[in-house]
Write a structure and sequence with these properties.
Strand order of the largest sheet: 1-2
Distance between the termini: 45 Å
Number of helices: 11
Structural class: mainly alpha
Shape: globular
Helix content: over 70%
Radius of gyration: 24 Å
Largest sheet: 2 strands, antiparallel
Order of helices and strands: HHEEHHHHHHHHH
Length: 303
């Protein structure tokens, strides 16, 4: 009787897990189908070249223009900049939490405080990051902007709302993801690898960078993937610190990302303008999918 009951429960659990796994796949397929259905008509109506490679965005003009090339470029450069800043800081922080604070009671206490701070960073809403960036970072950038372009007659001052501000805010926002996942991956590396490296005469620093991090790079890449997804998908904080103008993404230019494009104009758009915004969402979705595929392949090669 107990054996039959065990088989029934295991069989039921199997089908329940299969159901929820199938729901995840169906959800992704449904979102993909919906985005293509909504995004392709405007792409066909405006034209691939004019939409994806046009540089003028004037949807409400007498002769409307729907070029989103600068917006795409801003999203790519902003995300890359955030990753280049946030990933090294996050990785080094994870190394400090795992290998430099575990040898003494004071170190473990410090590790607990830092871990709590990192978890708090992850819990802060994005609008708070945007508010802090707008109140503290943007005025600082404005003062720097006035110093650099004091004698320029062509520069348009943005009040500090520029690409650099957006990159810094994004870099801070991806830190919790990178730190937590990297720290978990580094802790999972067997202690025997560290001991063997140290026994062969390597220093602690050499052991960390030549043995531990390469052994944990699969998990670290997972953290990078999730960090890139966070950076690409962020809207509210970027909308508050980047300025929101469609410009060439130079460091001190006010810029607009794909996500902020949707947030800024979806509420009042209609007709072809609204359809083009769905195409912007489709472009963002395709970018996220392609970046995840690329980083997943890099992760597999690392394994």
């Amino acid at each position: 009787m107990k054996g039959n009951l065990k088989k029934i429960s295991e069989g039921a659990a199997k089908y329940i897990f299969l159901l929820f796994g199938s729901l995840a796949v169906v959800s992704v397929l449904a979102i993909t189908f919906y985005m293509f259905v909504k995004g392709l008509p405007a792409l066909a109506q405006v034209g691939v070249t004019d939409l994806l490679f046009g540089t003028v965005w004037k949807p409400t003009a007498a002769e409307p223009s729907y070029g989103i090339f600068y917006i795409i470029l801003s999203s790519i450069i902003g995300t890359m900049g955030a990753v280049l800043i946030g990933v090294p800081i996050g990785l080094l922080t994870a190394v400090f939490l795992t290998d430099y604070t575990s040898g003494s009671p004071r170190g473990r206490k410090l590790s607990g405080i830092l871990t709590a701070a990192v978890e708090l960073l992850a819990a802060i809403p994005s609008v708070i990051y945007g508010l802090i960036g707008m109140m503290i970072l943007n005025p600082f950038m404005y003062r720097l902007e006035k110093i650099i372009f004091a004698d320029s007659e062509t520069h348009q001052f943005t009040g500090g709302s520029n690409m650099i501000s957006a990159i810094i805010v994004l870099a801070v926002m991806i830190l919790p993801t990178v730190i937590n996942i990297s720290a978990s991956s580094i802790r999972a590396v067997p202690q025997s690898l560290r001991s063997a490296s140290l026994g062969l005469g390597a220093t602690k620093l050499q052991t960390i960078f030549l043995v531990v991090i390469p052994a944990a790079k699969s998990g670290i890449m997972t953290g990078v993937v999730l960090g890139v997804g966070r950076a690409l998908g962020e809207a509210m904080a970027i909308n508050m610190v980047a300025g929101g103008a469609v410009n060439l993404p130079l460091p001190f230019n006010s810029v607009r990302f794909l996500t902020t494009q949707l947030v800024s104009e979806m509420g009042y758009s209609s007709g072809l303008h609204r359809q083009v915004l769905f195409t912007v969402g489709l472009v963002l979705y395709i970018f996220i999918v392609l970046i995840n595929i690329l980083l997943s392949n890099m992760k597999k090669k690392g394994e």
